[in-house]
Amino acid sequence: MAGNGKKKGIARLLELAGQKRTLLVASAVLSTFSMLVLLVPFLAIYRVLAEFLEHASAPGRIDVALIKRWSFVTVVSLVAGFALMYAGGMASHIAAFRLLYGLRIQLTERLGNLSLGYYDRSSTGKIKKIVEHDVEKIEKFVAHQLPDVVNAAAMAFALIGGMFYLQPWLALACLLPIALGFWAQFSMMMGERSRQALRQYYDAIESISSSSIQYVRGMPSIKIFGQTVHSFRRFYLDMTQYRDFLLRYADDFRHGYVTYRVLLLSLAAFIMPVGVFLLSRDPRNVSFAAVLLLFLALSPGIAVPIFKLNGLASTLGMIAESVRRVDELLDEPELTEPARPRVPTEYTIAFERVGFCYEGTAGERIRALSDVSFVARQGEVTAIVGPSGSGKTTVAELIARFWDTQEGAITIGGADIRDIPVGKLMELLSFVFQDSFLFSDTVYNNIAMGNPGASREEVYRAAQAAQCSEFIEALPQGYETRIGQGGVYLSGGEEQRVSVARALLKNAPILVLDEATAYADPENEHRMQRALRELMRGKTVIMIAHRLRTIRGADNIIALRQGTIAEQGRHDELLRLQGLYAGMWNAYVEASNWRLGERGHSDGADSPNDGGQSRMVD
Ligand SMILES: Nc1ncnc2c1ncn2[C@@H]1O[C@H](COP(=O)(O)OP(=O)(O)OP(=O)(O)O)[C@@H](O)[C@H]1O
């Protein structure tokens, strides 16, 4: 990632800005001219002052035409200066917005090509901050700070050069406090300590960003469980840490900053004694008096470009950190496309001695699967069961290359999944998760995204088969009703049926169901099972289930224990083994009977012995 020879920090920032070189050069030239033209009124002040002082004892001899001429020049130069400044600003803003657009497109393309596991690792808050906040920092640098630095530097050089030309001693009196101020500021603000502080600042912002998202998402739990819930505590802790960090930061740097500002804002206090001393040696030198007055008039203005340059220097570190974070995301490895692609025509999935470890936050390896081998045949249902944390979800996610296996291989129709082009692999798979994700869009579009080329008829047929046409037609605008903000909210079961309709429409040959009937009540579950039976016909089906009743009829049941296969076979075979599966089944039956006992009567809906009427797979 970092070792790819890519430039870093300011150099990388300038490289990014360099993509819009022509516009930026135009902006710099226009800004510099604008600044030089805007200095002309100071020259006018000097000439008029000199004229007044020269003829102070005989005002009648003052050259009125000269004063009118300089007044006219002042007005023209102000208008021209501001027009040039406007044109320069336009050029830099156009460059910045184009850069912003380009970066955001690159980032979103990269986000679309990353392995799905990246999203498990990275919080939404972190990604959101990079795409919004960090990119905007770069845009602001190009739009404002880059032109500012050019014209501030031009102004500073023009002023200092002019001052030395007019009166070197007064110029030195001005430069001394500027040099002292810079020394006070930079001796504190530069170096590793400052860079570390910046990094901490960014980490704190990212933390707040992700914990605030969690806080908002967890609001129902917060309301129910009061202030003890995790997301609130984390949010509160992040806010407190951020506050403490800022207070420490301000405390560390305040002396340098205050000294610097006080010195720069009191240049007149340094010019005055030197000026008075020089004037006392030659009190009749009228032109020196005019120069001294000009210096005093200019002294507050000298601080402006210097503050700008310094402001940029202190934010440059922040922008460089933003660039680093944007580059980090741009350098995230994409899913590799195979050198010699293979496209399977048969869809049996085989795990061959698969081992997999997650990487923990401190880089440690967390083993999730070891030596897992099984075959999920096309047209059959393979169920995966096991206690919590035994690796069921990992098995399902590895098939979609959320992560790549570190040991062994996974094949589809004999082709290693790493040899199947990524787009093709995604075409082959349909997932129905426990928590279905629906977009804030119409119901119709939510189903249609399963197959963007599908006709309206096909979308309606999929909805019908997924048992959701009835409730969709009862919605205020039917299929055109928006889901989520500004529209309607669906129940968990309804959302799941919409996602089954989406999967039906996609009609992929491999189907992975992760606890697909989790939200269904007895009535809905029956409908869901009918929908799923439709969806599963002829496919390779991998089904993760906690409610064992739903997988009793599976062709093969894989029972996982701590990332390894403890047993595999059909329901009856596994019961006879009297091992892990039999233990889970007995516990499940007991739990179901306990519930029935509590209610005092049996409606048969949740019974594991319900004669197969509600069996998902038979
Ligand atoms: N993103 C991750 N980073 C680190 N460890 C993980 C990650 N996801 C899962 N694990 C660990 O890997 C192991 C297997 O997890 P997995 O989610 O596959 O189990 P599971 O059987 O699906 O659990 P459950 O039934 O509770 O959903 C667990 O020990 C879990 O803590």
TrEMBL record:
<dbReference type="GO" id="GO:0034040">
    <property type="term" value="F:ATPase-coupled lipid transmembrane transporter activity"/>
</dbReference>
<feature type="transmembrane region" description="Helical">
    <location>
        <begin position="70"/>
        <end position="101"/>
    </location>
</feature>
<feature type="domain" description="ABC transporter">
    <location>
        <begin position="349"/>
        <end position="587"/>
    </location>
</feature>
<dbReference type="InterPro" id="IPR011527">
    <property type="entry name" value="ABC1_TM_dom"/>
</dbReference>
<dbReference type="GO" id="GO:0140359">
    <property type="term" value="F:ABC-type transporter activity"/>
</dbReference>
<keyword id="KW-0812">Transmembrane</keyword>
<feature type="region of interest" description="Disordered">
    <location>
        <begin position="599"/>
        <end position="618"/>
    </location>
</feature>
<dbReference type="GO" id="GO:0005524">
    <property type="term" value="F:ATP binding"/>
</dbReference>
<dbReference type="InterPro" id="IPR003439">
    <property type="entry name" value="ABC_transporter-like_ATP-bd"/>
</dbReference>
<keyword id="KW-0472">Membrane</keyword>
<feature type="transmembrane region" description="Helical">
    <location>
        <begin position="286"/>
        <end position="307"/>
    </location>
</feature>
<protein>
    <submittedName>
        <fullName>ATP-binding cassette subfamily B protein</fullName>
    </submittedName>
</protein>
<feature type="domain" description="ABC transmembrane type-1">
    <location>
        <begin position="25"/>
        <end position="318"/>
    </location>
</feature>
<dbReference type="Pfam" id="PF00664">
    <property type="entry name" value="ABC_membrane"/>
</dbReference>
<feature type="transmembrane region" description="Helical">
    <location>
        <begin position="170"/>
        <end position="190"/>
    </location>
</feature>
<keyword id="KW-0067">ATP-binding</keyword>
<dbReference type="InterPro" id="IPR003593">
    <property type="entry name" value="AAA+_ATPase"/>
</dbReference>
<dbReference type="InterPro" id="IPR039421">
    <property type="entry name" value="Type_1_exporter"/>
</dbReference>
<dbReference type="Pfam" id="PF00005">
    <property type="entry name" value="ABC_tran"/>
</dbReference>
<dbReference type="GO" id="GO:0016887">
    <property type="term" value="F:ATP hydrolysis activity"/>
</dbReference>
<dbReference type="InterPro" id="IPR027417">
    <property type="entry name" value="P-loop_NTPase"/>
</dbReference>
<keyword id="KW-1133">Transmembrane helix</keyword>
<keyword id="KW-0547">Nucleotide-binding</keyword>
<feature type="transmembrane region" description="Helical">
    <location>
        <begin position="21"/>
        <end position="50"/>
    </location>
</feature>
<keyword id="KW-0813">Transport</keyword>
<dbReference type="InterPro" id="IPR036640">
    <property type="entry name" value="ABC1_TM_sf"/>
</dbReference>
<feature type="transmembrane region" description="Helical">
    <location>
        <begin position="258"/>
        <end position="280"/>
    </location>
</feature>
<dbReference type="GO" id="GO:0005886">
    <property type="term" value="C:plasma membrane"/>
</dbReference>
<keyword id="KW-1003">Cell membrane</keyword>
